[in-house]
Write a structure and sequence with these properties.
Layout (H helix, E strand, L loop, with lengths): L1 E6 L2 E4 L4 E9 L4 E9 L6 E7 L6 E3 L7 E6 L4 E6 L8 E9 L5 E3 L3 E6 L1
Length: 119
């Protein structure tokens, strides 16, 4: 099993920055990829960014956040970060940390952290 705990959400003005953190515990060795999803009211959950846990750490970004958000991981701390700059009101959502695992079940979620961007 894998446990994920997010932190770092909050209220920020448009143009501001926030950094989200996600600490993983449990069967860390089984994690292959870590990611951040978000879900705004009335909308489907969407993938924002993801990164391989090992190797070069190749990252994926949704078009809507490219150039503004950066995902990174510190394996020694079992933590993945999402640095969010130039925030926009449309970035307002609950942000969830996600892990792909070689175990069953192969997918784990954190409890979510609220990010609110005021105009």
């Amino acid at each position: 099993q894998v446990q994920l705990v997010e932190s770092g959400g909050g209220l920020v003005q448009a143009g501001g920055s926030l950094r989200l953190s996600c600490a993983a515990s449990g069967s860390i060795f089984s994690i292959t990829r870590l990611g951040w999803y978000r879900q705004a009211p009335g909308k489907q959950r969407e993938l924002v960014a993801s990164i391989n846990r090992g190797g070069s750490g190749s990252a994926y970004y949704a078009d809507s956040v490219k150039g503004r958000f950066t995902i990174s991981r510190v394996n020694a701390k079992n933590t993945v970060y999402l640095q969010m700059n130039s925030l926009k009101p449309e970035d307002t959502a609950v942000y969830y940390c996600h892990a792909n695992s070689t175990l069953y079940p192969p997918s784990y979620w954190g409890q979510g952290t609220q990010v609110t961007v005021s105009s």
